[in-house]
C-alpha cells in the first residue's frame, strides 16, 4: 500500500501524486457505502493495480482541514486572484474570501493580474489596503509570464488552491 496526495478529481477519477509520479485511481466501493468521499487535497492510501499508473483508493488519512464548498482538504494556502480590468476588481468578494480563509485557518495570498491594463493608482490603492493589514500581494501579467516566479516561490512547501472570478486568468504553473 502506498500513500499519496489527491491533486485532481474529474468524474470520480482521481489523480494521486506519489513522489514524482501520478496514478489514476478510483475509490473503493466501501467508501460510497460509508458516505466518505475523497476530495482534492486528501492524503490517501492506494493499492496499485497491475495496469500501469492505475490504482484504487482504499483509505483516506485524517484531514487537517476540510471545506464543503468548494470540496477540498488539507490545503495550507489559497491564492486569491483578482484582475485590475476585465473583470474589474471585486473587493467585496475578495474580503469575503479573505474572511473565509481566516476562518478555515488557511494562509491567503492576493494575486493581482492584468496589472498592465489599468491605472497604477488603483493598483497602489489595493496594495495599500491589503498589505497594511498584513496580506502578501503579488502583481502579475499571466499572459506574459510576469510575476510567475514570485507565485512559484509562495507555492513551495504548500498545498495551494487558486480562486477567483471567471475571466481573471488564474495562473497555471506546471
Describe the structure.
The protein has 174 residues and is α/β, with parallel strands linked by helices. The protein folds into two domains: 2-63, Nucleic acid-binding proteins (OB fold (Dihydrolipoamide Acetyltransferase, E2P), Beta Barrel); 75-164, P-loop containing nucleotide triphosphate hydrolases (Rossmann fold, 3-Layer(aba) Sandwich), CATH 3.40.50.300. It contains four helices and eleven strands. It has helices at 29-33, 91-104, 120-132, 148-155; strands spanning 2-10, 13-18, 21-27, 43-48, 54-60, 66-68, 71-73, 77-83, 107-113, 136-139, 160-164. The strands form three sheets. It has a five-stranded mixed beta barrel. The chain has a four-stranded parallel sheet with strand order 10-9-8-11, with helices on both faces. Strands 6-7 form a two-stranded antiparallel ribbon. The protein starts with a strand and ends in a 10-residue tail after the last strand.
- Uncertain segments of ≥5 residues (pLDDT<50)? none
Which strands sit side by side, in order, in the main sheet?
Answer: 1-2-3-5-4
CATH fold-type name of the largest domain: Rossmann fold
Superfamily at the CATH H level of the largest domain? P-loop containing nucleotide triphosphate hydrolases
Sketch the major β-sheet.
Answer: 5 strands, mixed, barrel
Please, what is the oligomeric state? single chain
- Which CATH first-tier class of the largest domain would you pick? Alpha Beta
Characterize the overall form.
Answer: elongated
Rg to the nearest angstrom?
18 Å
Order of helices and strands: EEEHEEEEEHEHEHE
Average pLDDT figure? 89
How many domains? The number is 2
Number of helices: 4
- Helix residue percentage: 10-25%
* Straight-line N-to-C gap: 28 Å
CATH architecture of the largest domain: 3-Layer(aba) Sandwich
Structural class: alpha/beta
Amino acid at each position: 500500500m502506498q500513500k499519496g496526495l489527491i491533486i485532481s478529481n474529474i468524474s470520480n477519477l482521481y489523480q494521486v501524486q506519489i513522489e514524482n509520479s501520478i496514478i489514476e485511481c478510483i475509490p473503493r466501493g466501501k467508501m460510497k457505502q460509508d458516505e466518505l468521499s475523497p476530495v482534492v487535497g486528501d492524503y490517501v492510501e492506494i493499492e496499485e493495480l497491475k495496469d500501469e499508473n492505475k490504482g484504487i483508493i482504499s483509505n483516506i488519512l485524517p484531514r487537517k482541514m476540510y471545506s464543503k464548498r468548494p470540496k477540498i482538504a488539507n490545503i495550507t494556502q489559497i491564492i486569491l486572484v483578482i484582475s485590475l480590468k476585465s473583470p474589474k476588481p471585486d473587493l467585496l468578494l475578495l474580503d469575503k474570501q479573505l474572511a473565509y480563509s481566516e476562518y478555515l485557518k488557511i494562509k491567503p495570498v492576493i494575486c493581482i493580474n492584468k496589472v498592465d491594463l489599468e491605472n497604477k493608482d488603483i493598483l497602489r490603492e489595493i496594495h495599500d489596503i491589503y498589505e497594511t493589514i498584513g496580506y502578501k500581494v503579488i502583481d502579475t501579467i499571466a499572459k506574459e509570464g510576469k510575476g510567475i516566479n514570485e507565485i512559484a516561490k509562495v507555492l513551495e512547501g504548500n498545498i495551494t488552491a487558486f480562486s477567483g472570478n471567471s475571466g481573471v486568468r488564474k495562473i497555471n504553473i506546471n
